[in-house]
Every structure is written in structure tokens, then in C-alpha cells.
Design a protein that fits this description.
Layout lengths: L6 E3 L2 E3 L18 H26 L15 H46 L1
Antiparallel strand pairs: 1-2
GO biological process, one term: cristae formation
Subunit structure: Component of the mitochondrial contact site and cristae organizing system (MICOS) complex.
Main location: mitochondrion
Length: 120
């Protein structure tokens, strides 16, 4: 186990305090969307029992609302957003080029117009 980094606060060097039961989670390697879906299902299955245990431990008497069923897949919704962003990013160079060309044409037209004002 590595030691935590030191912090400098008001001229004092301190180390962050951490309970022994705290766990440090490293960034896991990215997997496929199928692996992500499986992890999401595991998290959904683990959340209600964990909340029930917490409520029993702390004596909270509350009825949690049920999780609503959705008519759409969250994974498909996420993936459609990712596809839209990638598509927009792939079109960005061509769009920027078109905008620059329009700006150059505007400047050319503007300088022609101002020249005719000065000449006449």
C-alpha cells in the first residue's frame, strides 16, 4: 500500500486521514458496451438491498418509491448521444471550412463595395 500524498495547508504539512475500512478504487479499464450493461444491471440489483440494510442500521422508517419502468433503453439512449457527438465532431472540419470560405467571400464583397464608395 502506498502512502497518501502530503498536503500543505497554512504552512503545515499534513497527510489526509483515511479510515482503514475505506477502499480506494482505481479507474477500471474501459470495456465493451455489453460489459457496461452487465455492470449497470449488477449495480441496479445491489442498490435496493444496500439501501434496505442502511435504513435498518440507522433505524430509518421510510418506504422508498419503486423504480419506474422505462419505455426505452438507457443504453440505447446513451449510445445515440455518443453517435450524435461523434458525427458532429466528424463534420466539424468541413463545417469550419465552409464558414471560413463564407467569411472570406464576405470580406471580398465588402472590400469591393467600399472601393466603389471611395472611387465615386
Amino acid at each position: 500500500m502506498t502512502t497518501p500524498p502530503t498536503m500543505r495547508l497554512y504552512g503545515k504539512t499534513t497527510k489526509p486521514r483515511r479510515a482503514e475500512s475505506d477502499t480506494i478504487v482505481a479507474n477500471p479499464p474501459l470495456g465493451s458496451s455489453e460489459q457496461g450493461s452487465q455492470a449497470l444491471e449488477k449495480a441496479k440489483a445491489a442498490t435496493p438491498p444496500a439501501l434496505e440494510k442502511w435504513m435498518k442500521d440507522f433505524g430509518v422508517e421510510a418506504q422508498l418509491p419503486t423504480i419506474p419502468k422505462t419505455e426505452f433503453s438507457l443504453v440505447e439512449l446513451w449510445n445515440s448521444g455518443v453517435r450524435w457527438i461523434i458525427s458532429s465532431l466528424s463534420e466539424a472540419p468541413a463545417k469550419a471550412s465552409d464558414d471560413i470560405n463564407q467569411g472570406i467571400q464576405y470580406l471580398k464583397d465588402f472590400t469591393k463595395y467600399t472601393r466603389t464608395l471611395w472611387v465615386t
